[in-house]
Amino acid sequence: MTETFSGSFTQQEPIPDEAIEAALAVLRHGRLHRYNLAKGELGETALLEQEFAAQTGARYCLAVASGGYALATALRAVGVRPGDAVLTNAFTLAPVPGAIASVGARPVFVGVTESLTIDLDDLEAKAGTARVLMLSHMRGHLCDMDRLMQICDDAGITVIEDCAHTMGAAWNGVPSGRQGAVGCYSCQTYKHVNSGEGGLLVTDDEEIAARAVMMSGSYMLYERHLAAPGPEVFERIKYHTPNISGRMDNLRAAILRPQLRALDAQVARWNERYQRIEAGLRGTPGLTVIERPEAETYVGSSIQFLLLDWAADKVQEVLRRCIARGVELKWFGTPEPVGFTSRYDSWRYAESAPMPASDRVLAGIVDMRVPLTFSLEDCDLIARIIRAEVGAVHQS
């Protein structure tokens, strides 16, 4: 009898009881706006920022409305202006070049390797074309951060890290988001902590932090932040920094604080599931497993594999056969955007030259979410289904 999977690839775990109780407390007192505080109250959002700064080892942290807002704010805060070129990955999701376009800047795309990380040789070749790199750790894959930072430091490039998929990850023990000038994280439902939408920005640079706080809509209430620079820094920038409101509220912050305390345990659970699927896929004819570097501490909240040099109709046949058995796979090789699987040549607002080596990789990337609602037995079953269907199409 043919096995099928009946679970959901979009169902998240329930919000923890502690977070629900914290949210109810905010709803009962009604002070949802982050600056609407009772006498002596610190506020959920300010406490979230303080705790996440400590968790990542950053001096400063700002909580905002979304990960995309954090990215655009970081670009403005480091001084990107309309017309400026900003380097970024050819393999990423639409909010990354979208953030660049939102400030009137121009994305300059850097290639992708078979490890699904930014092509460091291509970055080195393009290093003289821009003074900022928005580095996307796409789908949780970290490149050689030591070499990347050396390239950027030598070229005077400021690095902004998009850590939407790497909250809880690290390179040689350094938390993701802490190598560059700014780290930006997402708290959207499908990321590592869930407040529906939300974002976090960390930095050690006091002026970047102060500009970001002012941009987020602090008015002159910046003293109510617990993970921000002192008032003397705001005095230097407050009249020259526009308010582009995008604050996080106390309700979402209350939901997030208990989840962040549980992040390490959740990472271990994701990696258990990832490793079961990865083990089940190894050795499948025609399928390439993405090898993880020893220096990388990853979070396996999704898994990717390559069907390199397969004809498009054969990849589509794998997807069709897997979904018929309940396994939802996404493909980055489709010529038209489908859901989130757009690619550098999909974004017509950004000029791009052909990138044949990257196109070959993109045409082979197959992607799958790994929700924590999956059991380990579910993961074994999913791997068996993918293995069987890839094998069947490959043999044909």
Automatic annotation (TrEMBL):
Q: Which domain of life is it from?
A: Bacteria
List, alphabetically, the SUPFAM superfamilies matched.
PLP-dependent transferases
Q: What is an example of a GO molecular function annotated in this UniProt entry? A: transaminase activity
Q: Does the keyword Flavoprotein apply?
A: no
The organism is Ruegeria alba
Gene3D superfamilies documented for this protein: Aspartate Aminotransferase, domain 1, Type I PLP-dependent aspartate aminotransferase-like (Major domain)
Family note: Belongs to the DegT/DnrJ/EryC1 family.
* Protein known as: Aminotransferase class I/II-fold pyridoxal phosphate-dependent enzyme
Keywords, comma-separated and alphabetical: Aminotransferase, Pyridoxal phosphate, Transferase
